[in-house]
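Page 42, continued from yesterday. The earlier attempt failed because a stray header line got pasted into the input along with the sequence. Redoing it now with the clean sequence only.
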Amino acid sequence: MQLTDDEGNVVKLPDDGRVVLSVRNGKVVSVRDVHTDEFIASLNALFDMAKLAGFSINKPDGVKR
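This time it went through. Structure tokens are written below.
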């Protein structure tokens, strides 16, 4: 699969693997491969993983989440 950027240049996606697309005003402005040792998650997912690992998550005001 391939995309074109806002200047009409062809941006080739890998045949296999994961990529992160940055989109501005409905157009792809950059593409970056996600390496095999990288993980992408929301902040809430990071908090959940930390809790599962035994960490406590506290808000700046000291209240536990």
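Notes: The chain has one domain: 2-52.
Reminder to self: strip header lines before submitting.
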